[in-house]
Amino acid sequence: MRHRRHSPLRRFLQGMVAAAITAAPMAAPEVFAQQQPAVATAGSFEEAMAEGQQKMAAGETQGALEAYRRAFAISSAGWLVAANRGNAADQLGLHVEAAQMYRHALGQLSPADEAYAEYQPKLTGRLQAAEAKVGQLVLMVSRPGAEVLLEGQVVGRAPLPQSIYAMPGSRELQVRLPGYDAFRWNGNVVAGQTITIDVKLTRSDSPPPKPLPTSDDQNAGMSDAQLGFGIAGVGLGAGGVIAAVVLSLAAGNRADDVTRLQGEVDAAAGGMGNGCGTGSPFTAQCAELADLADEEATLRGAAIGVGVAGGVLLVAGIVTLALPLSNNDGGPDIGLSLGSDGLMMNVSGGF
Predict the structure, then answer these.
(1) To which H or E segment does residue 335 belong?
(2) What's the pLDDT tens digit per position in 125-144?
(3) Res 205 pLDDT > 60
(4) CATH number of 135-199
(5) Which residues of 177-222 form beta strands (DSSP E)?
(6) Which of 24, 286, 322 is nearest to 314 (CA)?
């Protein structure tokens, strides 16, 4: 049979933890465990453990706890450091921290360990006593990886392997995950009791369910007829504007012809400027000149009329496509009417 040899330091630490575990807890005011200060990890694990044992033996419980926290931050493996830290926290009234450490120590204490038979019952009793002074929260989170906060302090990410210890009283719990609405729970924690919280996270960018359509909804938005009118208005309006430009150019050409022919007649009449007067010998030229002048006037009138109509249609089409013709949210009501004064665009309401 092989015998395990232990260093003098290890035997010293085991002897000291035996004394610490069996020591009776001292009365202390209740302190919320999540407010414990951060501890640096400077130095070695052995030095921190030895310092904790020395301060514990000298009755300096707070200093011992800080040393054990430092040792635990360096290495949380093994049951010894957790058991000592739990004992120191227990004596200072930090029951949440004590319960956490006792539970961790029991998880690290193996039946194959020589100390199991002696310390497993003691640690179990200490854990039960600490749990009787705190409440427990069991979370069932629908999304893994969600961050869990108790009283604003991060305690882990879902799924949590164990329950959360909390001091009795009104407590606030939050569960948050990017892309999801934050979950909040406010409740009263009772010592010795366990509360199960079902956390269902919903996506924050998911649209709300659409309500059933109502009679008012039937008039909202743009109908197919309005869409067709808008497209037709833009097309016809643009065509009207182009036609007006073409007619204006044609009228200009007729005006040039009138000027040219009038000059020829006047020149033939000897520059008198009355070549188409009564008894004029230029009857044919004068008749052509009159026809050209009439065509010019007709083309200019048509260009003005088509241009105005095309502009109105173009504006009406653009507005129709930009805004619904029937706006139930207080927008404008737009429509066209044909009256004695021509094509009219009617706008009522406000933008």
Answers:
(1) strand 333-339
(2) 999 999 999 999 999 999 99
(3) yes
(4) 2.60.40.1120
(5) 183-189, 194-199
(6) 322
The CA-based dihedral angle spanning residues 334, 340, 341, 344, taken in that order and rounded to the nearest 10 degrees? 10
Domain map of the chain by residue range? 8-131, 135-199, 222-348
Q: Mean pLDDT highest for which of 126-130, 221-225, 323-327? A: 126-130
CA atoms within 13 A on the CB side of 87: 29
Whole-Å CA distances, 141 to 144, 154, 184:
7, 15, 12
The partner residues of 189 in beta bridges, in order of sequence, read 169
CB neighbour list of residue 109: distance below 8 Å, 6 or more residues apart: 79, 115, 116, 119, 120, 123
79 within 8 A of 105, measured Cβ to Cβ = yes
Which CATH number, 3.40.980.10, 3.40.50.1010, 1.25.40.10, 1.10.760.10, labels domain 8-131?
1.25.40.10
Do residues 141 and 159 lie in contact, with contact meaning Cβ atoms separated by under 8 Å? yes
Residues 6+ apart with CB under 8 A from 160: 139, 141, 148
Q: Quick one: which H or E segment has residue 259?
A: helix 224-268
Amino acid at 130: A
pTM: 0.50
